[in-house]
Structures
1.
Amino acid sequence: MTKERETVELSLVIPVYNGSRTIGPLVERIQTIFATTPFEVILVNDGSDDESEMVCSELAKKFPQTVAFVHLSRNFGEHSAVLAGLSHTRGQYVAVLDDDGQNPPEEIMRMLQELKRKNFDVVYGHYIEKKHSRFRNAGSWFNDRVATFLLQKPKELYFSSFKVMNRFLVNQIIKYRGPYPYTDGLIYRTTRKIGQIPVEHRASASGPSRYTFRKLVRLWLNMFLNFSIKPLRFSVYVGLLVSAFSVLALIAIVIDKLWITRNMTFGIPTVLASIVFFAGLELMILGLVGEYLGRLYLDQTGTPQYVVRYTVQAGLKNESSAVAINGEDRSEPNAAA
């Protein structure tokens, strides 16, 4: 039987995706910065295509007292990887940061002090000057506007991937049952005790941003469909407006044909255009409803948030078939080497 690990003051969760060149120096810096603090680092390899698995495994063996490694069976996305890491933490406080060195670990203690001083559940790092590409900055700007509209968050509150949380909040958000997590949405629907402080944002040590347009669209869909029913309400409003417009247009046409032009001939192009317009509108709304139903189906059939192939803790590799289904870890340890 494996001895239960002791609680530490601070856990650092780092989702890793193709970060073999950057994660090693980052972990080395963390070892120096937090040398006098009881801490742990949870590295989560999210289906990387490079040598990240080997590098993370070696780091866990090199620093067995402070580094644990969680290897997912495939790429599940950043937010699923973060939840996987949070589920393996044991710290009273938990920090989440990127693997490319853009989030300076030196800022974590300032964020933690702010959280303790003002009794927040979470403190976000608000970047003084973003070092992203123009595409990524545009995506972040749009994501912030969407979150403000759908989640009704204050405009001045900025959701970033760099954050520090307390144990209460971590325990709440890892209960999420859906296969499409959005961590900031989970945080905001759990608490309003949220703070932020200005932090440095460094240039990525791994080169251009690995956030593609496809990943940004998936993030927006998760926000749209998993944490708000406003799109459905918007569909209702659009339907009502189109119906009202159609009635007014019909009345105008009848008045024109009976009392103004006295010409009852209707052009085929006009009719076809109207049919195509309303058919497209109906398909859009049906597609939206279908997306909601599809996600509900995937949730009910047990689509996992993530699947853990193995973990490395205290320098030992633990093979497992750990699966997070409906927000619940179901692990079947097979062997330890």
2.
Amino acid sequence: MKFIPLDSFSALNSLLQGVEAQGCCITMRLEAYTCRHTKEERQIANNIASYQNNVQLTPPISPSPAIGAYADFPPQEALPPLVLGGSADLAANYSLVNPDEIDDRLVYFVAALNTVYESDGYDFSVLRENDFVRYTEPQFRTEVSNTLQSLPEQCHPAVQRFWPTMEEVVENAEGGCEYYEFCCPSCDPLADTAVYARHYFVYNRRKKVLVLLVEYGESNPYRGDDGLPHAGGPTSAWDGESSTYASTPEAGEEGEVYGGGKNRQFYGYY
């Protein structure tokens, strides 16, 4: 998967960044990617399968037989050695996932999210198909149009160009488009920093192209609930020219340490 630099998307992104509306600062950003099987995608499929297999083969640990004695329950018979959960045939109850069986769409969605957020330490190989919800084209357009129509008048040129610009790249449902939203609040890397966040995927299998639309709202940095201006100006994780959302800090540059998000221990945040 490769990022596709598009002047039309860059123009829209610049007009729809940090727009004050609905009581917050809204950003809508479009990115386009090619969808082809490369070494990177094969590795992602392997990672997804490996994680799913590890989860399936890790049973719950049964309590120690001595625990029941403290609660006036009769002592339990000790479990066989080296058998977690008391079942030596646990692996037989699961069908191991083969990387070749992983849906291409899941691989591409994970690859796009990894490209966007990898500098923050995220690896979305933990995601599964049920972390994405499929929309019809009318449902998708309604969801996005609700936000576009709430933007102030100065954004009207960008709003008018939004759908034609997207369809130039990925077409529409008649041209083979499928519409999805990333719906896993515990996995959302913007959950701790944004008022709300939405990640949409527009996938065209025929054209082998994927468009990622990220929409999020941030609290207004100039005014708090007390009505007083706050120190500092607006900042964004997507500031700066980059083929991905977050730019890599320069050597010696200090930045705020990320302290939240999905699976703190899994990603090394303690």
3.
Amino acid sequence: MVAESWVSSPQTEEQTAYAEAESVYRSFVYDAYTAADEDLLPMLNRLFWQDYDDENDGVYSALSRIREVLKAQVRYSEAAGAAPNNADPIAYFLTDSRKGNAVLYASATVQALRAHGIPARYAEGYYLPIAKTQSSADGTAALTGQDAHAWAEVYFDGIGWLPVDATPGYYFDAVALQQMVSLPDTVRKTAAIDEDRSGADQVVEPSGIGGSEQSKPLTVVKNVAAVGFGIAGIIIVLFTLLLCAMELTRMFLLWNAERRRRRMSIEERVRQSQKLMFKLISLWGIDAALGWETAATDKALADTLPSVKPGEYERVNGLLEKTIYGGIALEPFEERALDLFVQRLWGRNVKKSWKMRLKLRYACLLAAK
């Protein structure tokens, strides 16, 4: 199942923004959610994929294979015992105890999908059967620990994460699963209705003149110059007030940002620097996003800003991916490198137009949105 054709060939700004964001996130997903446990990989390939017919390979075909193997290999039990010390729970479930609950079924499904190169992740929550709400007078139902459940989620390119389940008694049949997968693939299409903007027919007398009397000539303003100077004066006053308000707001935001930054954790400081970094890059007319076309962005920055050295953006992008996607805190020297790079994006020694100077001066207002 695939997404609409516009995901690969967007036609509108909204579609382009979605496609670009999804492309960046998809790269992260395939890096982070396709690696199976190395200790389990030989066993997973032997059990699930050694005799697998991949002629019609796909998510649903792979999931059907996993269900078949689990049905033949293990049985469902809510009271599955814990694995012995130093034993992997999934390996123990698949090869020794041969019985497990939804947690073990979901965990094994995730590892088997990843071993086959399909991005998958583990999810927990509550299972609410439709019959439970249908039998309720007001359509509500109380959930307890008895309703707790675990399942797997698979990433569909251009669509996102969708739930799949290999636990007996919970998963859908073939038709229902295909319907579930196809739901996000449907894009709401609206038709534009042209309004009749024509006015009422004009009533015309035989002479060709409208029925109403001819409008009298407008009174000519004698002192046009005075009116013009008055309007110009009002515009100047309003513009001055606007600049004063922007300067006061800028001063307050800079002071408040510095005060808050001193109390932030390193993770919060990094995210703040990331937000400001991409805002400044966009002001220079360069499209950029974390992990997206880093080499092209690096070259564009180096060509635009002499203070930015080739390869510097790629290094900073790697630091941000490490801490934001990988959850690894930056070292003090790495944070200083990030801050130094952001400072260079202000382009203080670069010749700029007055419009660009205004944009950079009030970038703090834009970043605060």
4.
Amino acid sequence: MGPAPGEWQNRGSDHERTLHDPWLQTNPWASGPRVRVPGGRDPGSHAASSQFAGLWYVVAMVSDCKVFRGSKDHLLMFTSNVTATAEGNLSVHMEVPGPDGCNQMDAEYLRTGSQGHFRVPTLGYLDVRVVDTDYSSFAVVYIYKELEGALSTLVQLYSRTQEASPQAMKTFQDFYPTVGLPHDMMVALPKSDACSSGGQGAP
């Protein structure tokens, strides 16, 4: 799939790929935040990134990635713990349940401009953006990525709790068809206790 519509369409042509982390063999669709701020504030500012920081649950996702299509029914809910840096980047710690227990990895979401664009070379994420968020309960995250030489689109629903609100789910479901992703490729991720930080008491 190509770029997201509307204001998010100006992605540029400097896409990069570095995809070598063994964690991707377990779950190549790791979460990735980028910040769009309603009201015209700079979505790449440190203040906006700080609001986005904290623990998120990735509760639903949809993708046209070939690997995702073959594995989506086996995926479980996972967490993304976000820390903002003074430069406007995001340091993200992910814990993903897998067949062998809890898989953990850290990734840097590198700011690429003032429009809330990030890239994550270690995950093959060429463009990462937050389509919508209220910071306190949900976020819809758009990712354009390269995996094993193939380009694909991924949209994730982030929630501050393990249960996304009906409005958050509606926002997610209203958005992903606009980037060409069909409803039958969406999966709501089941809860898992394989990762300790996935509990409600995690920071």
